[in-house]
Request: fold
Amino acid sequence: MPQRSQAVLEPRKRPVQARSTASVNAILEATIQVLLKLGKERLTTTRVASRAGVSVGTLYQYFPNKSALLQAVLKRHLDAVTSTVELVCKEQEGATLREMGTALISCVF
Reply:
């Protein structure tokens, strides 16, 4: 089975202006909302665009397909988790392993 090209999953362009950033943020938040409400199988770019309050054309300016949209949502989530874990580890410097473990569990869950 052929592998998908990484380029197909990459965003088409990055938002530059504040309005563009707001649109991309709305699209990503709408993706999460549609996923939670309908599941991955029923998630469509049309549903996401409608929920985000943008046109499908606007969505496609930034995300070439549903897979790219899902990858962007996952990347954003993992980046947030990584930042949180790094912050907690810095805050817990010098603490016991048990204290650090408890702090990490508390921040993630």
